[in-house]
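subagent[fold] <- orchestrator: predict structure for attached chain, return tokens only, no commentary.
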Amino acid sequence: MTKNWWKAALIRAARTFAQGLVTLIGSEAINIVDLNWPKMLGMAATMALVSLLTSIGGLPEVVDE
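subagent[fold] -> orchestrator:
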């Protein structure tokens, strides 16, 4: 796995983390104080890890070197 692969995979994982967190914020409550931040961050981190693991199957934006 090259430097380009790691960069692309980590960018995908970070985007997945952010998208997951936004989804959870929207589904949890209107008041930001009422959100269960530890649980939501844990779930978003799990989504990011799954994204990183599925990137092992290949990333179309990374040309094989």
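orchestrator: received. Logging for downstream: The mean pLDDT is 85. The helical segments are 3-28, 37-54.
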